[in-house]
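Appendix B, Record 12. Input sequence as logged:
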Amino acid sequence: MKIATYNINGIRSRLGNLLAWLERERPDVACLQELKAPDAMFPAKALAEAGYEAAWVGQSAWNGVAILARGVRPVVSRRGLPGDAADVQSRYIEAAVDGIVIGCLYLPNGNPQPGPKFDYKLAWFERLIAHAAVLQASRHPVLLAGDFNVVPTDFDIYNTRSWLKDALLQPQSRACYAKLLAQGWTDALRTIHPDERIYTFWDYFRRHWETNSGLRIDHLLLNKRLAPRLVDAGVDRWVRGEKGASDHAPTWIVLDAGRSRPRRRTSGA
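Logged structural output:
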C-alpha cells in the first residue's frame, strides 16, 4: 500500500500536474495540502474520472486539505483540529482508508516571526500534539501526513545561513516536532534514509531547485501500531521539475499488508 503527501500549492492551477502524478505513480492514498480553493471548486469529478474518491476541507484562496483514495471512499472522522472552536482555517482532515486512520495536515508557516502568525503556529502545533497523543494511544494504525512547515534538524536543509530567522527553523518549532516524535511516532522518511540529505521542498527563488537547495518539511509519521508495516519511503522528485510545478514534491511510504521491519538505507545504497 502506497500513501503519499503532496502540497499541491493550488489544486485548480496545478490539476494537470496532480493528474499526471496520480497516473504515473498510482498511490493508493494521497494527502493534499494548500488546495487554495473553496469546497465548491474542488475538482472531485476530474479526480473520480482518474479513479480517486476524495474527502476535503477547502478554503477560498488559502489553506485547504484533502485525502484521496484510489477506488474507495475515505471515511471521514474529523474535519478540523480540536482544541480551538474559533479557528476557522482549513488545515486538518482525518479519515479511515482500508483500516488505517489518516490525519492530513497543513501546519501554519508562522512567518514573519516573532509575531501573531508565529504564535498561531506554536498554538496549532500544541493542539496537534494533544490530538496526536490520543491517536497514538488508540488501538488503530494511524498515519499523520502533510506539510508540517518545520525543518527538524540542520541535516534536513541544504544550508541554514539564509534561513536562520525563518519560522521553519526556530528552536520552538523544532522542539514541538521533537515533542511530537517523543510520543512514539516514527518519521518514515528519516527511518528509511537515515544518512541521506533528502528534501521535499525547493522554493522558487535563487535557482534552489536547479542546485538542489532544498528543505525537508513534508513528513509522514506512523504510530506504534503502524510502524512495523513500513517497507519503504521516498520522494517523487520528478514532479518538482515539471512545468508549472508546486514548490513541493510528493513524499510517500509503502506499507506491507502484514508486519514488517523498516528497511534502512544508507546514502550509498
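Residues 2-255 form a domain with the Deoxyribonuclease I; Chain A fold (CATH 3.60.10.10).
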